Amino acid sequence: MFRKKPKVREPFVIPSTLAELGLYITPNDELRQIKNPELPYEYFQRNDTAYNEAYKAAVMKCAYDIVDERLQKLGMERHRIPLGANEDEPQTEVLVSSDLRTNAKKLVVLVPDGSRLGIWGDRILTTWTLHAGSMEDAVRRAQEAGYSAVICNPGELFYVPSQRRAMRLFETRASGSRTETIPGNASPQEHFRYVMEEVIKLAPAAKVVVLAHLFGTERVVSYFNANWNDWADHLTALGLAKTQHTAADTNDKAFRWFLANRAVNYEQALDDQDSSTEKVSNRAARNAGFGCATFSAECRFMDEVVAAALPFYFEFFEKMEKEGALTPYEAGESEEEEDDLAGEVDVEVEEVAVDSGLGGSGWE
């Protein structure tokens, strides 16, 4: 009986710098191949999954290190969560502006669950620009608008004692590491609650705006729906990207009115003909029963929505801030308007196109 001999895997060593990995950062902040500058990072290097994964991990570490350095220069500090945790206790980290305690205007950002702290998504980081795929653009815009920022970390909630740090789920599975539960932060929902009640509430009387992406949107809506009395005087606006909630998920009358008037949601392109990675069109999308104004970001993929529509979120936040506090009528005390909140929110806007920053600085 003949049997095929198992292939012996040749050992390999992955370089640790971008240059050694065959990549560089262009003047437009794009990650490109040295040999083919018009091409982005390519996952498939060999017919070997283990090598490709190791190569990707090395590339992403280089990109993460660059992003971390930039955010640090912008005044973003890493804080242990839970607050007061010792170095050897289960913990994760969030990014916090250095002026959080003195600035009453606050932006809270909730990234997708699988993302690393400070990153919208690995694909955006490697195919768009480093500033668009990370929190850099959002932090800069927040600072220009006078906000301090708190960047939540729902992705890294699996504490690995051997590494003395929290990791993403797929990282722990790949390494086979034993994990421990982080007190008060066992899930993304608990993590958001902890940040809002232990980090934001400890700050001066705050005026808060929240920007959430993908499943983070559902957690944000669920939290404020259940705790609206605590936040009605503080929450100025909600920015949602590819929201996962529906109007039926909310039962607090005042919060439903808030969603209808002070929340905005952006979706990916309605169809392939509408998609564009060169510009964002502020055009009303088909209403999907979210109970809030919904627009198309005119990008092809759902992980691109925030990067594509970021200027519009901050325009919306500025508009809501100028409108001031909610009146009792706006706060949901009118029985007459309640039945309308579960229906569609029709929004008519003039089409406006803006540069999304692809291949450029992304902001002025």
Account of the 3D structure:
There is one protein chain. This protein has 364 residues and is of the alpha/beta class. The C terminus is likely disordered. Helix 6 packs across helix 7. The strands form four sheets. Strands 3-4-6-5-9-10-11-14-13 form a nine-stranded mixed sheet, sandwiched between helices. The protein has a two-stranded antiparallel sheet with strand order 1-2. The protein is built from twelve helices and 15 strands. The protein starts with 22 loop residues before the first strand and ends in a 9-residue tail after the last strand.
Number of strands: 15
For the largest beta sheet, what order do the strands appear in spatially? 3-4-6-5-9-10-11-14-13
Into which percent range does the helicity of residues fall? 25-40%
Structural class: alpha/beta
Order of helices and strands: EEHEEEHHHEEEHHEHHEHEEEEHHHE
The residue-averaged pLDDT reads 84
Q: Calculate the terminal CA-CA distance, rounded to whole Å.
A: 71 Å
Q: Name the overall outline.
A: globular
Number of helices: 12
Q: Please tell me how large the radius of gyration is.
A: 22 Å
Q: What can be said about the biggest beta sheet?
A: 9 strands, mixed
